[in-house]
Amino acid sequence: MTLTLVGLSHHVAPVELRERVALDAAAARALAARFGDAVCLSTCNRTELYVDGAAEGDVVAALAEVAGEPLDGVLYRLHEEAAALHLFRVAAGLDSLIPGEGEILGQVRSAYEAARPGALLDHVFRQALAVGKRVRTETAIGESPASVSSAAAALAAQVFGELRGRRVLLIGAGRIGELAAGNLSARGAEIAFVANRTVDTARELAQRFGGEPIALSEIGSRLGEIDVVVSSTSAPEPVLVAADVPARRRRPLFFIDIAVPRDLDGAIAKLDGCFLYDIDDLEAVVAETLAGRRIEAARAEQLVADEAARFRTWRASLDVVPAIASLRARAEEIRTTELAKVDGRVTDDERRTLESVTSQILNKLLHLPTVRMKEAAVSADGATYADAVRHLFGLEEER
Amino acid sequence: MVEALFWPALLGYGEAAFAYASARTSRTATWGVRLGWLAQTALLVVQAARADGFPWSTWAGSLNLFVWLVVGAYLIWGCRPRFRLLGLSVMPLAALLLGVARLGGGTDAGTRSDYGNLFLILHVGLVLAAFAGFTLAAGLAGLYLWEERRLKGRATDILRLRVPPLGTLERLTRHTILVSLPLLTLGLAIGIVRQRRDGGSFDALEGVTLLAWLLYGGLVIARPHGRRAALIALGGFALVIVARLALAGGHFA
């Protein structure tokens, strides 16, 4: 059993190359199947083949065939503990474009479940999934938003708490505004109104979010009914000024201005119960959270390193496990053979006592050698000890 | 025995007062609060067992009970990581007041009570429980104002240094006051009935407490929102502090 990883990712390959080797689930499964015991992880940022026992050159050739060109210089090739460590980092989101992004863990799970791998790959992928989960629960790496649109939704949640039932007014049909509305909607907010200069566009967007299209001139009159305003028009003048905002509201009003030039009058921020974030504010918040993610990533790296050490221990124990099993089988064989010799000369009670006593002697005798062999395996002497045991007890023929 | 219980309580609260300063040590802080509170609970049980009557009838003794109530109420939400900064405001106060209670002899065992009837015990217990609730509400209101200021000022670390959302803080402040106000009302009513029956003059402490009752009552009826509600909760707490620390001596005497 030898774990080998061959792959490419956003760190080394340009997008033009990555898109050629990006495989859908069926194609990834078919590629893995060519190597028998293998798992293919293919996302927009990476394509990696984890194989047990297959020749590295064959894997490289298969990937080059998919890409339609030689991949020298962009492929990485890792083995055993290094390959496991890489997979753990990938599952934890530490190798992602945005540190700590959570989607990759689901992709690793899908790749693993699609492959039905053998013992080695099964173990390493199960451990990777556990590492990914552990990093997310024991560090705050995935807690903060990593994009302007998700930061806008997170800030709204920081004002209101639960966003379920909160009503949103979307002004304009800008891409980031739409993304922000999507993020708010995903957190339970209701896109109540969509206002746009072009009524048809407003209607189309409103239909998609299940809201009501309104004219830009109606915005002021609707502010009393809503909690969040997301604005992303291309208007050269502000579409909403402080004077339009109703005073003495009983609940807060959160404004997100993603437009350049800005759509919302800066004086709105000074109104009681009103909060205003423009694109610069949101980008500053995202930059700060990304810095926080990097700090958490250092903690996550330590967790991943610990898991890689555990993998090494497990892997090393595999060298001695067959020898231990053979030794125990040989001892048991001798015990049962010798017991068979007294059959008919002892009573049933005496037979049971003999069974029990000989079992205990055997277990006590083999306990220490078993423990010592496992310890030796961790310190890299496992193979030597295993060979010695096989030689001393005549187990060679069972290899 | 009481010594062996007082010091772990003070140590637990003191440790939490410092450990809440960092997110990394906040779990240790919460354990400090839990263990400290358990030690103080045991201390109160020992005091109750050894006392002749109500053991917290003195000013310092009532301060000991007050700290226990505040920390107990805090523990309801304080274990959540997002309430770390609430712990940072409540626990130093708890540690300080417990220390003051000890200096005044409020953590000793075997005291004789001046309170001979259940009326008085109920009066003190209910008013102190209400004051503990108002103290916690003030901590939540302070956190609300701080977080609102950060949101208004568009602090870049707003999503890194996480505290509960404004909506949650406002709701919890209001609910804490809603629970505490009936306790104060009942405690005051019992005190007034007792005073009418046994005689005695209306003192400054009663005046300030009545003023606090009116303020919190107004807050419950008028239902102000946001910043205004938080400021009123803090104003009420200022009156609680005056009642608890500045005027209580004469009343207890």
List keywords for this structure.
heterodimer, A: 399 residues, alpha/beta, Beta Polymerase, domain 2, Rossmann fold, 3 domains, four-stranded antiparallel beta sheet, 13 helices, B: 253 residues, mainly alpha, 2 domains, 77% helix, 0% strand, flat
Short summary of the structure?
With 399 residues, chain A is α/β, with parallel strands linked by helices.
Number of domains of chain B: 2
* Alpha plus pi helix count of chain A: 13
Total of domains of chain A? 3
Mean pLDDT of chain B: 87
Tally of DSSP β-strands of chain B: 0
The quaternary structure here is heterodimer
Determine and state the CATH class of the largest domain in chain A: Alpha Beta
Helix content of chain A: 40-55%
What is the ordering of alpha helices and beta strands of chain A? EHHEEHEHHHHEHEHEHEEEHHH
Gyration radius of chain A (Cα, Å) is 32 Å
Folded structure, characterized:
- The complex is a heterodimer of chains A (399) and B (253).
- The longest helix of chain A has 62 residues, at 279-340.
- Chain A has three domains: 3-138, Beta Polymerase, domain 2, CATH 3.30.460; 148-272, NAD(P)-binding Rossmann-like Domain (Rossmann fold); 319-398, no CATH class.
- In chain A, helix 9 (199-209) links the parallel strand 6 (190-195) and strand 7.
- Chain A is an alpha/beta fold and 399 residues long.
- Chain A is 54% helix and 13% strand.
- Chain A contains 13 helices and ten strands.
- Chain B has two domains: 1-112; 114-253, no CATH class.
- Chain B is mainly alpha-helical and 253 residues long.
- Chain B contains nine helices and no strands.
- The longest helix of chain B is centred in the middle third of the chain and has 35 residues, at 118-152.
- Chain B is flat and about 60 Å long.
- In chain B, helix 5 runs antiparallel to helix 6 (166-198).
- The A-B interface holds A 143-145, 151, 154-155, 157-162, 250-252, 269, 272-273, 275, 277, 281, 284-285, 287-289, 292 and B 147, 151-152, 154, 156-160, 162, 164-168, 171, 225-227.
